[in-house]
Amino acid sequence: MGKHYLVETEEGAVFTGTRRGTPSSSARMSLLSKDIDLSPDEVASTVKDKLLKERVSVQLKDPVSKESVNKYMRTANTTAYGCGLPIFSPVLSRVVAGQDVRRHSWPWQISLQSDSSGGWSHVCGGTLISSHWVLTAAHCISDRYNYRVELGKHSLKASEEGSIAVRAADIITHEDYNVLLSRNDIALIKLSSPVTFSDTITPACLPDQGVVLSHGSPCYVTGWGRLSTDGPPADILQQVLLPVVGREICSQPDWWSVLATDKMVCAGGDGIIAGCNGDSGGPLNCQNPDGSWDVHGIVSFGSGQGCNVFQKPTVFTQVSSYIGWINTVMTNY
User: Fold this and answer.
1) Which position among 170, 185, 279, 294 bears the catalytic label?
2) Which of 280, 292, 303, 320 is catalytic?
3) What keywords does the record list, in alphabetical order (predicted)?
4) Which superfamily does CATH assign the domain made up of 108-203 to?
5) How far, in Å, CA of 316 to CA of 159, rounded?
6) Does 65 participate in catalysis according to the annotation?
7) What pLDDT, in 10s, does the model give residues 90-116?
8) Which of 210, 212, 315, 299 is nearest to 259 (CA)?
9) Of 16, 63, 218, 258, which shows the fewest CB atoms inside 10 Å?
């Protein structure tokens, strides 16, 4: 902010359809801390009032109601830590270069770490989407390692107040993940214990099912990836503006051709700035008119020739194409 995949290490194989643990019979999407039980018809009229009064978690009987929760989380008082609403707003810039972020301005950004080297080390990024769940890329996961998630981090090297590390309890990769074509490159991590939202840790919102970003939409990729193709990994979380490249352009022969499908988002491609090794799994953050942020993409792949290759934009898994899958997983585990 090199390789085809933007994982910090290529050690170990990536397995498709990874299942760890057994599905739970409860349909739980924990958002905050105190349980209430809602039917789909009650969600729209109840969630906002509850969020304004106390921190709650919502027991959903119908996964389709997730969109209603998003809507009302966005409009809730910020003391309830609504999704996509950082307490410390990011400093947005159109500078064509990666830059250190304002501390805790992307509070849903996580560091996915493995024990592959004898200690915990950063492998990929990811996005907190509820108190129990993190969204990342399938190619970040290997059956050979254990994983944990660090939340509330600004510097990966420093010990920071407000940051925590939580072990992964379950990891579910998409059952149709194709490692060769980078299709369905999406995974969900269920945390071993729920996260308490705070000034430094809050979830991102999910986009509505089927939303397609228009060409030129200004979105930001965040991560601790390498600062250049052969450069060092970032210690401080980085952000960079990556305008969306429309599918009609990204799928042209001299761009990504048939590798860019209708379930992917392309962004960047100017040959100057892009995602890089270690950014994989992290979010493409796009702001809504109301000021809240949706995670529209999951960093998936880039050019094997290097991080910043002209007409080879960073390619993301398009989150809006997988809302049904996300809801099903969150319901059944």
Assistant:
1) 185
2) 280
3) Disulfide bond, Hydrolase, Protease, Secreted, Serine protease, Signal, Zymogen
4) Trypsin-like serine proteases (2.40.10.10)
5) 31
6) no
7) 998 765 567 899 999 999 999 999 997
8) 315
9) 258
Give residue-wise pLDDT tens across range 161-212.
989 999 999 999 999 999 999 999 999 999 999 999 999 999 999 999 999 9
Q: Where are the alpha helices (DSSP H) in 17-106?
A: 40-53, 66-75
Half-sphere exposure of 101 (CA within 13 A, CB side): 28
Better-scored residue on pLDDT, 228 or 155: 155
- Reading the block at residue 108, the tokens are 């849903």
**280 part of the active site:** yes
Contacts of 260 (CB under 8 A, 6+ apart): 247, 250, 251, 266, 315
Contact 185, 300 (CB under 8 A): yes
Angle among Cα 98, 103, 105 to the nearest 5 degrees reads 80
Contacts of 112 (CB under 8 A, 6+ apart): 122, 123, 124, 125, 126, 134, 136, 140, 147, 149, 189, 281
- Residue tagged 């399938």 (tokens): 138
On whether the CB atoms of residues 68 and 205 are closer than 8 A, the answer is: no
Average pLDDT over every residue of 268-280: 81
Q: Look up residue 263 and give its DSSP letter.
A: T
Helix (H, G, I), strand (E, B) or coil at 234: coil
Q: Provide the token pair at 136.
A: 């990342």
End-to-end CA distance of the chain: 34
Task: Single out the residue of 63, 70, 94 nearest to residue 84, CA to CA.
Answer: 70
Query: Tokens 């600062």 label which residue?
Result: 227
**DSSP letter (8 states) at residue 80:** G
Question: What is the DSSP secondary structure assignment for residue 51, as one 8-state letter?
Answer: H
Measured CA to CA, the distance from residue 125 to residue 281 in angstroms comes to 5
Phi, psi of 73 (to 5 degrees): -65, -35
SS3 string of 235-261?
CECEEEEEEEECHHHHCCCCCCHHHCC
Q: Which of 104, 139, 154, 296 is catalytic?
A: 139
